[in-house]
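Long-time lurker. I teach an intro course on protein structure, and each term I like to show students one example going from raw sequence to a predicted 3D structure in token notation. This year I'd like something fresh instead of my usual example. Would anyone be willing to generate the tokens for the chain below so I can use it in lecture? Attribution to the forum is fine with me.
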Amino acid sequence: MRKEREMGQAGLIGFMQVGIVMLVIGFTVLLLMVQFELGPLGGMSTGKKWLLSLILGSGMVAFSIKLFVIAMLVNFPEHTIRAQLAAQSVRPAVLRQPAQVARHDRPPSVRKGYVWRALPDVAPSPAWNPTTPEKVALGERLFHDKALSIDRTVSCSSCHEVRRGAGMDGRRASLGVGGQLGARNAPTVWNAAFQSVLFWDGRAASLEEQAKGPPLNPKEMGMPSLEAVARRVREGEGYREMFDAAFGAAQPITIDRIVAAIAAYERTLITPDAAYDRFVRGDESALSAAQLRGMELFQSVGCIQCHSGPNFSGASVFDPPPSPQRLFPVFAAQKYADRYSLTSDVGANVPGNKQGVWRIPSLRNVALTAPYFHNGSVDSLREAVRIMATVQRGREIGNDANGNRRIVWSKQDRTIARVGSAPLSESDVDDIVEFLKSLSSESLALRNRGS
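-- Reply from a regular --
Happy to contribute to a lecture. Here you go:
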């Protein structure tokens, strides 16, 4: 190989020497032709002769440079080019010590990457429906009023318990009027104000639009029409005064004002008091070593590709991606699909498909909101992590150091490489679970333990 390199360099130098000699000879011949033949023939002055010589000479120089570049690429040793390309793609190895986490105010050699952010203290509201104390008070009463259901037995809070719980009912599927069982798991209403689309399939574009859905669902609240809902509210004692305070005197009680008040109340149901938030705001003691390891894994495994931003959802109002929905499952994992019926409901996808299309849920308070997934089929957060790592990120779970990685030899290029991703160990899964626990509101966690 060294001999090949020396021969290539010698050939290139020899070509350069011959090229320079030929360039000098060619330029001299060109100059003589312009001065003594072309110039007199065209009746050119001395200045025009030199200008023509310069123009023709620059073309000759440019052509010579192109020949030189071609010769250099042809003679440059192939192994040198390949080594330079390989050096660009190889990342330095980093040793991760599970028991210790180093902290630096400004790490000197870390590339800028994903920026972790805390949840804001206030949820945004549309300009046409600003959040006011009067509107919030009205919305809270409506949210808990069972008169909004056909048999006066179900309210919004029946499935989304916020006074004593984490914003859901803890069932695989919720109970509606007449004891009917719904088709999907009730997601938490906490921090729903930060989501850009609502419902599991993302069919509602705002809290106001979402609030019109459950009253008309025959299995949930069973009302015959939105006007029937407004009529029930008009009949309710004390509502007239509350609507006057919230929207102005003598304004009619309509379904649009009803859902506007409910949405205003829901925009106060936010939890910026998680240990994660304290850590991102500067309290480096807020997370344990296991949670920090889990935080790094959450990033390196690629969970942040969907569960991003302060609300840990790509379907949120923070830097939303082109689509707030994702295919699920991405990778075939029949054991999980069969065991938990993951594909029996395909959400927003066309019926008959083998993959569902679902809104990206928030992971805020996820440790408090079991069971998991659209059908509530998984009770354990640890199992939910295993499923997501397998069917969404294509990672194997186990302590085999090689996992699904393969050794690939290229006969043509004479290169060898290890492809595929390393598996997640059981301790990695535990660390991710611990990090997810840090997303729980401390006030909600205390309330859950108390109840």
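Some talking points for your students: Residues 1-7, 76-110 have pLDDT under 50 and may be disordered. The two ends are 75 Å apart (CA to CA).
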